[in-house]
Specification:
There is one protein chain. By secondary structure, the chain is an alpha+beta fold. It has four helices and two strands.
């Protein structure tokens, strides 16, 4: 039942364009505030398994203890557990701290 159409990977894909897939990105602007601690960027491998609040909670737990590298590992391990012990999709995580 997976992986199916990965729309994020179809950007610039001529074959997908011929099938009607159009790349219209959602652009959000956020002015950084003093309370902003980090930015979490990830592929659908993370977001298909974890909700926004859960991912932020996991990352924040380790960032508070200055363990950024452990935060990324914890996110990946949580995805692995959610998916029955394996990563079934490309799962890339970028964690930027401020």
């Amino acid at each position: 039942d997976r992986p199916g159409l990965a729309v994020s990977r179809s950007l610039g894909d001529g074959a997908a364009r011929a099938l009607g897939v159009i790349a219209e990105p959602v652009i959000t602007v956020h002015q950084l505030r003093p309370e902003d601690r980090f930015m979490l960027i990830a592929t659908d491998g993370l977001w298909d398994s974890l909700g926004n609040d859960q991912a932020v909670r996991i990352a924040a737990t380790y960032i508070e203890r200055n363990l950024q590298h452990v935060a990324v590992k914890a996110l990946l391990e949580t995805v692995r557990r959610e998916e029955g012990g394996q990563l079934v999709d490309d799962t890339t995580v970028i964690l930027v701290t401020f």
